Amino acid sequence: MFKGGLVITIYKSKKLNREKVLRDPIHSYIYIQHQVILDLINTREFQRLRRIRQLGTASSTFHGAEHSRFTHSVGVYEITRQICDNFQRNYPTKEDGDGLWNDNERLIALCAALLHDIGHGPYSHTFEHIFGTNHEDLTVAILTSPSTEVNKVLRAVAPEFPEKIASVIQKTYPNQQVVQMISSQIDADRMDYLLRDSYYTGTNYGTFDLKRILRVMRPYEKGITFHISGMHAVEDYIVSRFQMYQQVYFHPVSRSMEVILNRLLQRAKFLFEHNRLSQSSSPLLLLPFFENNFSVEDYIHLDDGVLNTYFIQWSRSSDKILSDLARRFLNRKPLKSARFSQETKQLLPKLRDFVTAAGYNSDYYTATNDSFDLPYDVYAPNQNRKKTQIELFQDDGTLVELSVISKLVAAITGEVSGDERFFFPKEMLASPDQIDLFTPIYEQFQKYLKNGWLFNNDNNNN
Amino acid sequence: MFKGGLVITIYKSKKLNREKVLRDPIHSYIYIQHQVILDLINTREFQRLRRIRQLGTASSTFHGAEHSRFTHSVGVYEITRQICDNFQRNYPTKEDGDGLWNDNERLIALCAALLHDIGHGPYSHTFEHIFGTNHEDLTVAILTSPSTEVNKVLRAVAPEFPEKIASVIQKTYPNQQVVQMISSQIDADRMDYLLRDSYYTGTNYGTFDLKRILRVMRPYEKGITFHISGMHAVEDYIVSRFQMYQQVYFHPVSRSMEVILNRLLQRAKFLFEHNRLSQSSSPLLLLPFFENNFSVEDYIHLDDGVLNTYFIQWSRSSDKILSDLARRFLNRKPLKSARFSQETKQLLPKLRDFVTAAGYNSDYYTATNDSFDLPYDVYAPNQNRKKTQIELFQDDGTLVELSVISKLVAAITGEVSGDERFFFPKEMLASPDQIDLFTPIYEQFQKYLKNGWLFNNDNNNN
Amino acid sequence: MFKGGLVITIYKSKKLNREKVLRDPIHSYIYIQHQVILDLINTREFQRLRRIRQLGTASSTFHGAEHSRFTHSVGVYEITRQICDNFQRNYPTKEDGDGLWNDNERLIALCAALLHDIGHGPYSHTFEHIFGTNHEDLTVAILTSPSTEVNKVLRAVAPEFPEKIASVIQKTYPNQQVVQMISSQIDADRMDYLLRDSYYTGTNYGTFDLKRILRVMRPYEKGITFHISGMHAVEDYIVSRFQMYQQVYFHPVSRSMEVILNRLLQRAKFLFEHNRLSQSSSPLLLLPFFENNFSVEDYIHLDDGVLNTYFIQWSRSSDKILSDLARRFLNRKPLKSARFSQETKQLLPKLRDFVTAAGYNSDYYTATNDSFDLPYDVYAPNQNRKKTQIELFQDDGTLVELSVISKLVAAITGEVSGDERFFFPKEMLASPDQIDLFTPIYEQFQKYLKNGWLFNNDNNNN
Amino acid sequence: MFKGGLVITIYKSKKLNREKVLRDPIHSYIYIQHQVILDLINTREFQRLRRIRQLGTASSTFHGAEHSRFTHSVGVYEITRQICDNFQRNYPTKEDGDGLWNDNERLIALCAALLHDIGHGPYSHTFEHIFGTNHEDLTVAILTSPSTEVNKVLRAVAPEFPEKIASVIQKTYPNQQVVQMISSQIDADRMDYLLRDSYYTGTNYGTFDLKRILRVMRPYEKGITFHISGMHAVEDYIVSRFQMYQQVYFHPVSRSMEVILNRLLQRAKFLFEHNRLSQSSSPLLLLPFFENNFSVEDYIHLDDGVLNTYFIQWSRSSDKILSDLARRFLNRKPLKSARFSQETKQLLPKLRDFVTAAGYNSDYYTATNDSFDLPYDVYAPNQNRKKTQIELFQDDGTLVELSVISKLVAAITGEVSGDERFFFPKEMLASPDQIDLFTPIYEQFQKYLKNGWLFNNDNNNN
Questions:
Q1: Of C446, D28, D180, D411, which residue is most buried, by most CB within 10 angstroms?
Q2: Does any CB of chain D come closer than 8 Å to the CB of residue B415?
Q3: What residues 195-214 of chain B have any CB closer than 8 A to a CB of chain C?
Q4: ipTM more than 0.90?
């Protein structure tokens, strides 16, 4: 495909004889014009993304959302390609430092867009929490390790090309236009996942006017800005994102499945560390991670199906907790949950005691949300104002920050979204007519719940 | 949930206090009204369908088509529910034998609709071919084996209920209205998969006017008919189905991936049978199938991820053929193909010889389409006219068969769709400038291809 | 169709032998089940709504938005029908005063929904301003005047039925559930127009999850409430409505066309009152309105086409102002506009003087937004808190007002949306290179404009 | 805007400083890049298309289909623009006669696309039939008459430019690529109207894969061809068109409204010619047409609203036939119809006699379909094989005609679609329980109808 120094020079700018397209439900078609992009898609590291779901456990709530990181990655590439086309058509640089678009940056932007999630593994969030991996570090590793096919393709462009792509993803690349295309409050990544997750879940909260946003987007010396005439389209995007977080990404049932997954891996690790994981339960491809001694190669062999396969094995384990948690995960038996406030947080120890009294090991059968970061960022310019706020471009050349002129955006700016929840077995909500040994415990437990919140029943009963 | 004789009587007709809904991209919502349906969805056998893709290898061509049999199954249930509602509202039976709808059949229809694919396993078509399983038999086994959760739920309705559901799926149930809802030329199954596969692939060939078809559908003594005013909507459905077969289901790349999968499992079975499958390549959950001694329980433990996990293990095998085929499958390296006619079929031995000469074992690296049945049926009333033709209802009560009045349907009636293809390694198409030991062989091979067909070059060169 | 006392009793509840449907792009189908509804649709007063555009001049900005009040009216009917179905299925009254739904109210609700806009005329807003008509009074007149076909149909249901329908539209009907279905912050009227106007303009700002809102809607003793689990769907509806106002209903170009229309009718009225409207410009069907002596019959003869026909006649008038304004309206030559604040309002007399100096009669060629009310209401519970705020229903039966728990809604609650604008001829923006007698005046005028606002240039030039 | 010789040279290629866009529901945006195109849209002749509905009486059947010829015309322009972009990007000419695309033809193609329907008037088909006008001749007249604004803009490009555009529309322009873009079996005109009419009617029969068709379209020396890989997309387009004709364009209710319109204008003309049209019924703007002495200027003053205004006047006429037909048209009271065959055609005189006997003047109250041509062409290569058949391009450069390889297209090729119908007053179908003087006549009449067809009852009763 690419051999020797002579070809390298050509390879960088090699266009396909004829554009190739991938049919895509969100963008109709993904247009592939460079040999490099086609070669990257054909690497095993990229193909592996087909076997990792974009939204992890979310399909347990929204059954349609079974799409993979592969589909999202080509979508981010396509939006970036469209941004580059627009910039090149309307804002081509004329001289250095004029703040306009230099189309020599195109291939860097396209590769970074395509590969920005290449380091993700199965159930990334929970996996990282248990095994101490980090998908951003792994992205860099996959880009820069000579053992990967991705690295081989990138190196064929230029020896320093893999590191360049890595620096875009790490946001240290000098050209902030390229960085912000891939990673900012309103970037190709977020725009694709909102539209895509909306489509696959079957909700319509995430829809916004992509074509209009692309139209008003323009480069400037410090990155990317938007013409003020598109303010409402940008505002609509921010509100859509907020709605998707509230209604999809933060959904309690999906989070509850993440809790079970976390507890399941925690139990397996515990058993492994105490040599109590039987031979028939041994997770061959996971062993390097249990042993905390894994290579990039080991990581590349993981996907959702690999983990699920071990869960199936574990569902037959003689360890009751391991097999029960595995079955709850595989057969979608979510924990229940209730919200709590700073004030009702004090009730948690008492509630855990009830769960213990009802026969559950509360280390494995309860959890609070604290241990789970939010899976995606939310617009919060106060925290990192310098880097990511959205600037609108006015006719006289001045900029104005979005939340200054949008009441809607101001309303959700800097707010901590999401909620804190206490998770517990559904059995605790059993009704009294279901005769059971633990009925009195259930009844006591239930007195502390009201309208979906923990409720300090003790105070009221004084 | 259901215990003892007394509850059984109630269970059958138990409605949920409040309708539950599942969000669905195709039908907006799936409405669940019976406790029985909710309990069936929550069984492990049904939840397992989340881990089996509806379209097998099709996502290698249409990357969006990663949806599972779970989503399709609840969709078939929902369409059936809407048909029952319509029948009950507009065509309720008044006396036995009047050919109208008896709503006591509703629960049977709903359960059969929901469970019609419960016996499907991973990559069903190829799996069945290699291991001699049969998904229809396995559906019946899962419905009727006392060991399954599905059977337990069904038995709680009535002791003979599992067999009733099985008979609907086997088309032997006396009420043909129920049978045809689930299985006929224009049934809930086909209607859901066309709309769903269209949506997820991002093509629009499969769209048709579901609402209009449901409106004109009506029961009669021998099954289901359609009012003639909806003729064009039915016609459009038939044409849409034809288009989906031509453009999606028969796509050569997806079929090529099926070929690789077939060869891969064939090689693993061969190695197993010759004791050449190493310990580290041992497919724990597949062993009962290699040994041809499996239980329903064993079958239920399989899913796409389990097979893929063994493919990952095999990709590291020391057997070159096994590891190469596993990598081709995992990393999406399809074989190439060309169509052949009855006339050019005679070229196949010669072409296989070229493939062998180029260093490939042609038993594993070539195939023809012959060994693969078509994955779905096509409208072909000539073959089984009695059971499945579409009858239109006229105002004076007479029926007329669809293809009699639709030129479009007549055009594709009884036609054998699809094509016969010869599959071979992509490497055979290498161009002469890619210097290679086998270049002369490639060149000879390529002389027998033209415009996507095998071509009898020898004749022309006389 | 309906004759004599005997039939009257039957007529009220007469269902069609077979449901009739109208194909509709928003709701797929409009289902018609009552003979009364079919008869109302077939009246000349209702058919006339086909010739009156729903959005008046908005199609001059969004060319797709050419839909009529007919399409919207049947849409409001359909949503109301779905609400009734849901209420009857899930919340049927058991005893008087239980706050649940009494399905005897259905026909009243359906008729009121269908007829709520029956009194609208061509370009209602401007027409009313010039001729002192009022579409709500005219709605009541059409419902209750014995001369109309609508009244004849309604009377056939019951003698007092026309007044009942009128009282629903006037919000004085005792059952507030019926009133709020048709007229409240989140009623069938608003829900249909948001979805419909979105669809026809081709924007997607107005889309929201109708099915989910219908699911969480429920009756209570004081009207209609929403289950709190649907809070985000309701919130999304409010935000969508806000966006549609900002981006579609308040669009400056459409408003500018309204300004021209207003000035055109004002000029014609002036000429008529001074006997300067020539015979060939005489607007036969409008004369009763110029003479301020019109009947319901006269009003029913008006539609958009009638007014436009007179505008075509007037475009050939010898009165320069009349013919010029008519041509600007017919040929879409909008005025330009700039926003002004309380502070820059003082500039208006000076700017009007410039317009006069450039040769335009500023009484006809300038305007401010003041003279135009907002075409639709905006969520503003502070103003009329009693009647229209949105209450959410919690599991323990208590209600909570939407803006209390939604930051987004709180952000736009009670805000006066829209902007104040000064309209003037586009010619005032001529650039200096277009040599013109008035160039110096244009240049002076333009100094008072900046970034789309009036700008107090005098201060800055001190 | 454009003055003097110097500017003319520049005007032709003048691009807007910044692309302008029109929001469009079908194509998202219409992109306007040339000053010429913007100026053409702003002419009064083009703006007038906003007041003429694309589908005439079809909105009486599909109420959503109220869109104007303006929206369709900008849509045809936009598709043509996309075709030019694709051709210029992928198939730019290198030397004269290579059969590839010369982008100097772009402005001609765009103008012809935009203006192809500029000669259409209100209810074109019927209007032409009564008044002997011809919309193609009028298109040429509007393009080439010095009195029109359109001509003024075109002349500013080049003196011979108006005639060039006219020759494209008349298909005599030498470059057949340009001609076929605008007018062939699969041109920008048909592609836009299928998608647009589908969208506005709310049916989905007309949808097809525009993006894919644009992708496979390519220029060759004799016009336009399609790569064979897109065969199924082209096939789907042909089938969609067939379906739209069957279900929308040929709908009996819309045709019945055309019949009434025809009879209404026929009656008015008769009264005018016999001096029996009263002063208050005088149709000022129509007089030149009644007098058969009209100018282009007169024609430009007509639109749907103008005709409807006179219909409203006529609905108050003392001539019973004129006022009744006017009211039937305005208030949507369609005639009923039945199909007839060559055999049952002989029944027509007898049936007309029944209608006369029931008190209707059968010259005005009956009609057959014969007098109405089909409103759009249908794929019929046999009739005009030379010009319009669809050729598919194979990899080796040879062409193959579509119907040769598509069974579906072959099935509808050369078929005369549509049906012959006899129209009569709905009152003829009155049921016997509606006591009426003419009941016996109705009963006799109805004996000749069966399943929607005329039926030779006399034979059967022998």
A1: D180
A2: yes
A3: 211
A4: yes
Quick check: D47 contacting C, CB < 8 Å? yes
**Please, which residues bridge with residue A102 across strands?**
none
Task: Considering only the beta carbons, identify the residue of C28, C90, C215 that sits closest to B211.
Answer: C28
Which of B415, B437, B429 minimizes the C-alpha distance to B351? B429
pLDDT, mean of residues D379-400: 69
- How high does pLDDT run on average in chain C? 89
Displacement of CA D40 from its chain's centroid (Å): 21
Each residue's pLDDT tens digit, B100-130: 999 999 999 999 999 999 999 999 989 999 9
Structure token pair of residue D255? 């045709």
Find the residue in C nearest to B91 (Cα).
Answer: C18
Burial-class residue D292 by CB neighbours within 10 Å (0-12, 13-18, 19+): exposed
Following DSSP, what letter does each residue of D31-48 receive, concatenated?
Answer: EEEEHHHHHHHTSHHHHG
Which of B204, B232, B246 is facing D246, going by the closest CB pair? B232
D215:A28 CB<8 A:
no
pLDDT band at A446 (very low <50, low <70, confident <90, very high): very high
**pLDDT at residue C7 tops 70:** no
D-proximal residues of C, 280-319, CB under 8 Å: 280, 284-285, 301, 303-306, 308-309, 312-313
Residue closest to B123 by CA, chosen among A305, A49, A329: A305
Residue B53 has φ and ψ, to the nearest 5°, of: -75, 140
Model confidence pLDDT, tens digit, residues C174-226: 999 999 999 998 999 999 999 999 999 999 877 888 999 999 999 999 999 99
How confident is the prediction for chain B on average, in pLDDT?
89
- The tokens describing B259, both together, are 């070929």
Inter-chain CB proximity C330 and D304 less than 8 Å: no
Closest CA to D426 of D451, D450, D440, D445: D445
Choice between D145 and C18, residue whose per-residue pLDDT is larger: D145
Partners of residue C32 on adjacent β-strands: C20
Question: How far is it, in rounded angstroms, from Cα A225 to Cα C341?
Answer: 27
Does pLDDT of D414 surpass 90?
Answer: no
Please, what are the domains in chain C? 4-250+379-412 (1.10.3210.10)
> Between chains, do C408 and A242 touch, taking CB under 8 Å as contact?
yes
Q: Which residues of D touch A28 (CB under 8 A)?
A: 211
Q: CB–CB of A207 and C204 under 8 A?
A: yes
Instruction: Give residue D307's pLDDT.
Output: 98
Note if the pTM is more than 0.90: yes
- pLDDT tens per residue across span A76-126: 999 999 999 999 988 999 999 899 999 999 999 999 999 999 999 999 989
E strand or H helix that includes residue B181? helix B176-182
Give residue D374's pLDDT band: very low, low, confident or very high (50, 70, 90): very low
Dihedral sign for Cα atoms in the order A446, A447, A450, A454: negative
